[in-house]
Amino acid sequence: MKNKIRLFIIASLFSIVAIAQDNAETAFSKSYSFEYDTQYAKAIESLLALKSDSYEVNFRLGWLEYLSKDYISSEKYYKKAIELEPGSIEARFGQVLPLAALGNMNNVLTIYFDILKLDPGNSIANYRIAYIYYSKKDFANATTYFLKVLKAYPFDYDSNLLAGKIMLDQGKKPEAKKYFLKALEYNPQSEEVKTALKKV
């Protein structure tokens, strides 16, 4: 008798899990369809109906709220996702989207540094840090970070272009030309690089 009860309980648990999984798959599927049709409010509602506080739901809600331009809610959901999965790099990259949209570039920079603590060689974070410092005319720090990218990706177009701009703004024309030419080798059709080369 006890074995039958135990088997019944186990079977019931499996059924509950299966139903929950089906509900989650349906909700996510609906959210993607609504997103495709730019019906972001309905995409959000389909996930909220799950009444789930999982990493995946919070991560997805962060993205959908960002698309709907509710940047404060978006950042809140990404932050919750990070609390649930502290090692998540993808959620941190998500979090910078609403913060950048709100103009909180100091917070964006902090998050990129957090990413580098988890993954020191992350080329996207290193490049974006370099770009933020370049925008602030902090060429010394910008150089530190673009060099990290070029060490791992010497033929990267964006980093060579940025390196050329940084060198040009400092009056270092021979160095700027070297980086611009490498960027042009990568993309011979780049009008931006061709225009930049005329300045050196």
Keywords:
single chain; Serine Threonine Protein Phosphatase 5, Tetratricopeptide repeat; 11 helices; elongated
How would you describe the overall organization of this protein?
- With 200 residues, this protein is mainly α.
- The protein has two domains: 13-119, Tetratricopeptide repeat domain (Serine Threonine Protein Phosphatase 5, Tetratricopeptide repeat, Alpha Horseshoe), CATH 1.25.40.10; 142-200, Serine Threonine Protein Phosphatase 5, Tetratricopeptide repeat (Alpha Horseshoe), CATH 1.25.40.
- It contains eleven helices and no strands.
- The radius of gyration is 23 Å and the shape is elongated.
- It starts with a helix and ends with a helix.
Second rung of CATH, namely the architecture of the largest domain = Alpha Horseshoe
Number of helices: 11
How far apart lie the N and C ends?
88 Å
Task: Please provide the ordered H/E string of secondary-structure elements.
Answer: HHHHHHHHHHH
CATH fold-level name of the largest domain: Serine Threonine Protein Phosphatase 5, Tetratricopeptide repeat
Helix-residue proportion: over 70%
β-strand percent reads: under 5%
Computed over alpha carbons, the radius of gyration is 23 Å
Task: Specify the CATH homologous superfamily of the largest domain.
Answer: Tetratricopeptide repeat domain
Number of separate domains: 2
Q: Mean pLDDT, as a whole number?
A: 90
Structural class: mainly alpha
General form: elongated
